[in-house]
Amino acid sequence: MLMTTVQINNQELFFEDSGGDGPPLLFLHGFLFDHTMFKAQVDMLTPDYRCIQLDTRGFGQTKWDGKAFDLYDIVSDCIGLLDHLGIEKVTLMGMSQGAYASVRLAIRHPERVQAMVLMSTRMDITSQEFNDNYKTLRDAWRENGAQDFLIEPLMNLLIGGQEHFGEHWARWRPSWERFPGEAMYHTMNALLARNILTEEEIRQIDVPVLSVHGLDDLGTPVGLADRLYNLFPNGKGKVRVKGAAHAVNMTHPDIVTPPIREFLDTYVNI
To answer: What's the CA gap between 49 and 265, in Å, rounded?
Structure first.
């Protein structure tokens, strides 16, 4: 596994690349996570697939310039990375924020996308109530740093209850406690300010799509994921996981990963 950085769009992007001759997959993680959230999927798919995992701006080991950015900047970073690696077409493996970026990449650069696995995503922006709550969290984090009363609701929302997912709380809490206020401000803005995609734009994405979602995801209700999936002209299946919150691929890999593998074997590795 190659672990390295590359200068793209004035960012020092960190990525891992398993290499090999298999069809390339680009993994894009969710908000407050990093590329390691896909470990279970990468372990199963390597070496039959070339697994490329990117830490997006503000997260993980990527050295971001600290300036404001949006989801289309992440799209541009992805295209720059693919160009750097000499990859013409890729299957996008996006979770939450990574899935929002994946859909926008498919709209803006359809010639670069072979298929998509979209995890924990939706078509529309969050409601005003959720926006207001997240802005309050953003501003409090920026002013006072990471505090327990800010971190714990996010862990419940994104990972699930500590009584069931304590190992994941233990894994991610230290990095969230160190997450800088300025990084929270700009990364949250990129998420909250995403543009509203039209149904027409979604229907123009004609690559095979698999939708993965937790049935206990309170931040992104499954009905909104279904609404997005139903617009794709080439949807190939839905995976719905009981007892899973937002980070479904991480908390329930034994349920999620086999159907992802089946989808890729059927529609990508052909």
So the answer is: 10
* Residue recorded with tokens 């999936």: 229
What end-to-end distance do the CA atoms of the chain give, in Å? 24
Whether residue 232 is predicted with pLDDT greater than 80 in this model: the reply is yes
**Helix pair angle (181-192, 128-144), 10° resolution:** 160
pLDDT of residue 124: 77
Q: pTM of the predicted model, to two decimals?
A: 0.97
Number of domains the chain is built from: 1
pLDDT at site 126: 63
* Token duo for residue 249: 């691929």
- Nearest in space to 187 (alpha carbons), one of 103, 12, 65: 65
The neighbouring-strand residues paired with 213 are 240
Q: By residue range, what is the domain housing residue 43?
A: 2-125+196-267
Query: For tokens 């919150």, what's the residue?
Result: 245
Q: Which helix (H) or strand (E) holds 93?
A: strand 90-95
